[in-house]
Amino acid sequence: MRQLEFVVARLLKVVLVMFGIVVLNFFLVRLAPGDPATVLAGEAGAVDPQFMSEVRARYGLDRPIHEQLAIYVRRVATLDFGESYRIQRPAMDLIAERLPATLLLSLSAFVFAMAAGVALGVLAARRVGRWQDMAISVTALVFFAMPLFWVGLMAILLFSVQLGWLPAYGLETVGGGFSGLRRAFDIAAHLVLPATTLGLFYVAIYVRMTRASVLEVSRLDFVRTARAKGIREPRIWRRHILKNALLPVITLASLQAGSLVGGAVVTETVFAWPGVGRLAFEALGQRDYNLLLAIFAVTSAVVLLFNLVADIVYSLVDPRIEARA
Amino acid sequence: MISRRQLGALAGAAALSPALAAHAEEPRRGGRLNLIVQPEPASAFIGINRLGPSAFVGSKINEGLLSFGRDLKPRPMLAESWEVSPDGLTYVFRLRRNAAWHDGRPFTSADVVYSITEFLPKVFSRSRAVFTNVDRVTAVDAHTVELKMKHPFPGLLTVFERSGGTMVPRHIYEGTDPYRNPANEKPIGTGPFKFAEWRRGSFIRLERNENYWQPDRPYLDEIYFHVVPDANGRSVAFETGQVDVLRGGDVEWFEVRRLARLPEVEVTEAGWEFLSPLAWFNLNLRNPPLNDVRFRRALSHAIDRNFIVRTIFAGFGTPCDGPMTRGMAFSDPAAWTTYKYDTRAAIALLDEMGLRPGRDGIRAELRFLPLPYGETWLRLGDYLRERLRAIGIRLNVTPVDMPTLVQRVNAGDFDIFSNFVYMLPDPAMNFTQVYRSDMKAIGTSSNLGGYDNPELTAMLLRAERTQDRAERQRLYTEIQKILTRDVPILWTHEIGFLTLHRKKVRNLMATGLGTDDTLADTWLAG
């Protein structure tokens, strides 16, 4: 019962935060100079005041800002995010088209980063001070420090241009006409470079976090006690050290999982991956307020959702957290 | 566009395009051409979106009455012939009888009348400006259209290519808001290719129009436009053979040289004759000291146009210190006042103005907005900053994105910004708009710097309405004299856009519109 109350309280918080985000974003996108009318006029080859005022009137951009906000919030409350000014299709349709590609990329990168990061972090902690620890830590640091676009470009030059092993860009072969299993393999081949590139950055974070956390926990009294009691080493690692050491890693994972949906702009651009990140970047460049706000709302909702899940997982792993809530 | 020396150097590695030479080979039917479109356009319908990417894709779908050869002479397109009366007051177009819209409806004079009188004036300011010279448009019969002019306007034919004179289906657009018509998503034209599929963020696919009015055309089965947002990615796409063509602007200028040396690649300067891009720095003449002609002349002395072409634009293009490209009708460089690269002359002019350096060596401060079209344009801004520093002017560079640039320029909130404009073959098109005093008001215009010369404006209007060619030349020569004396704009160079393509792609540059034309004549060798 207390678990249920905890979840309901959290959900209420999520709704409030979401409202705050929608209002804040509404003002945020309008801080950038220029508006959709300037962009549309430029595209139409009709930069004249008459055309621009027509566009502003058509989309209600000529009304006072508080009226625009009221209309927007009312619409969003009914989950109507409006239409992209530039592409003239419902913003949610455009996002839905791109979401599968982004989820595929982010989740692959996420799984890769989690698995490789935690495994290497534990290994480094177990071999602390030895060459394996050094090698893992230094490599992780290098990938953490290198900009994503640089890693991506180098990967393309090596694996696509020089070796010719993997495709350089896109979600699948343009005009390949594959279906079924062949299409799945084609997409998988296209996924390798961007997912690895995006994942490597996070691998570095997980390695460092896991290593530090494992080292800290393994020096605590209860581990020493367990050893003194004669419990076998694998069991100590599994039940005592890892279970406790992974708590901060879960926090990190929940934050990362949320941001992966909207945060892959660079990777998506370098690899021409048709995802939400690129859509957001383009919408910003075009001052496509409706589309941009819809993307912000979706990504914020995902971040909040993952945080909620993390809270619940936390409360399951560590019952003291529920008590505090 | 490109200097002969440069092109010769490239041709050493990659032979000059056979597109330039007559080919003895028999064209082959079939195949897929892979192109790059960047940035991804909002629409594939050229009728409502005339930016480069839309025009590139849309020009295969929607056509104009005319096209233009590399010699800039009009060529038949949807009009199979035309006549202009000697007094320049009547134009008669005879239309193709076998042309049809992609939905099967015939293309007739009613479509032409609708496009010229209703659709185009509503959606495109250049067409609107040009068609104000037309008194009435009449469908003489189903395949003949007559235009009666209010006065002669000898540049008129230039507007009838696919962008200024897009022909749109009346049965679909009449009585609708052109910007909200559902057909815009799947445009219907008369062109050699039909819209087939668009996966946003990935590609646009066009397929062969089996009922095209020109028999046996197009040769290609389909065209894919790949969407690759990153300039490095576009290089790689070409290098790895996933796309067959790279157009000017797809990759940075400094990459072109390397890619041109790849095996099986050809490079051509052809295909930009019609658009004829001219680069310059717009100056805001409303702001001191830019309102003083001596200051503007000093700026002109301070920049080395040869350096700009040779170093920043990797040797592609031609320095230009006047308002017209060499290819334009009535261009007369002999009449220009030129300001040779001479720092001392620049400083002398500033001294003469009484614009003395302060204790920090600075005489004046200006705000500069670079064109947000990639690294090359940023480097051009860096160069300008360094050169102006040498004559005691501090240039504060603010990199901006496109909407910010448009907004600030429209609000007159700038001193200098870099720009390039498609000049088009006849000065009555874009050239005139740039200098007319009645287009100088902030927020309205193409005369973005507020250059105010009513006498010149009167001459511009007279010149575009003068049927006699010799008289027209005399007027435009005079106009060029005045402009190069007044320096309302800091012209720098004719841009040299090169197109790289695989050798197997034949007849890519069939007209002066290059890859922006229909590509009906383009084919792939085996």
From TrEMBL, chain A:
<keyword id="KW-0813">Transport</keyword>
<feature type="transmembrane region" description="Helical">
    <location>
        <begin position="12"/>
        <end position="32"/>
    </location>
</feature>
<feature type="transmembrane region" description="Helical">
    <location>
        <begin position="101"/>
        <end position="123"/>
    </location>
</feature>
<keyword id="KW-0812">Transmembrane</keyword>
<dbReference type="InterPro" id="IPR035906">
    <property type="entry name" value="MetI-like_sf"/>
</dbReference>
<feature type="transmembrane region" description="Helical">
    <location>
        <begin position="187"/>
        <end position="207"/>
    </location>
</feature>
<feature type="domain" description="ABC transmembrane type-1">
    <location>
        <begin position="99"/>
        <end position="310"/>
    </location>
</feature>
<feature type="transmembrane region" description="Helical">
    <location>
        <begin position="135"/>
        <end position="159"/>
    </location>
</feature>
<dbReference type="InterPro" id="IPR045621">
    <property type="entry name" value="BPD_transp_1_N"/>
</dbReference>
<feature type="transmembrane region" description="Helical">
    <location>
        <begin position="291"/>
        <end position="317"/>
    </location>
</feature>
<dbReference type="GO" id="GO:0005886">
    <property type="term" value="C:plasma membrane"/>
</dbReference>
<keyword id="KW-1133">Transmembrane helix</keyword>
<comment type="similarity">
    <text>Belongs to the binding-protein-dependent transport system permease family.</text>
</comment>
<keyword id="KW-1003">Cell membrane</keyword>
<keyword id="KW-0472">Membrane</keyword>
<dbReference type="Pfam" id="PF19300">
    <property type="entry name" value="BPD_transp_1_N"/>
</dbReference>
<dbReference type="InterPro" id="IPR000515">
    <property type="entry name" value="MetI-like"/>
</dbReference>
<dbReference type="Pfam" id="PF00528">
    <property type="entry name" value="BPD_transp_1"/>
</dbReference>
<dbReference type="GO" id="GO:0055085">
    <property type="term" value="P:transmembrane transport"/>
</dbReference>
<protein>
    <submittedName>
        <fullName>ABC transporter permease</fullName>
    </submittedName>
</protein>
<feature type="transmembrane region" description="Helical">
    <location>
        <begin position="245"/>
        <end position="271"/>
    </location>
</feature>
From TrEMBL, chain B:
<dbReference type="GO" id="GO:0043190">
    <property type="term" value="C:ATP-binding cassette (ABC) transporter complex"/>
</dbReference>
<dbReference type="GO" id="GO:0015833">
    <property type="term" value="P:peptide transport"/>
</dbReference>
<dbReference type="InterPro" id="IPR039424">
    <property type="entry name" value="SBP_5"/>
</dbReference>
<keyword id="KW-0732">Signal</keyword>
<dbReference type="Pfam" id="PF00496">
    <property type="entry name" value="SBP_bac_5"/>
</dbReference>
<comment type="similarity">
    <text>Belongs to the bacterial solute-binding protein 5 family.</text>
</comment>
<dbReference type="GO" id="GO:0030288">
    <property type="term" value="C:outer membrane-bounded periplasmic space"/>
</dbReference>
<feature type="domain" description="Solute-binding protein family 5">
    <location>
        <begin position="73"/>
        <end position="435"/>
    </location>
</feature>
<dbReference type="InterPro" id="IPR030678">
    <property type="entry name" value="Peptide/Ni-bd"/>
</dbReference>
<feature type="signal peptide">
    <location>
        <begin position="1"/>
        <end position="24"/>
    </location>
</feature>
<dbReference type="GO" id="GO:1904680">
    <property type="term" value="F:peptide transmembrane transporter activity"/>
</dbReference>
<protein>
    <submittedName>
        <fullName>ABC transporter substrate-binding protein</fullName>
    </submittedName>
</protein>
<dbReference type="InterPro" id="IPR000914">
    <property type="entry name" value="SBP_5_dom"/>
</dbReference>
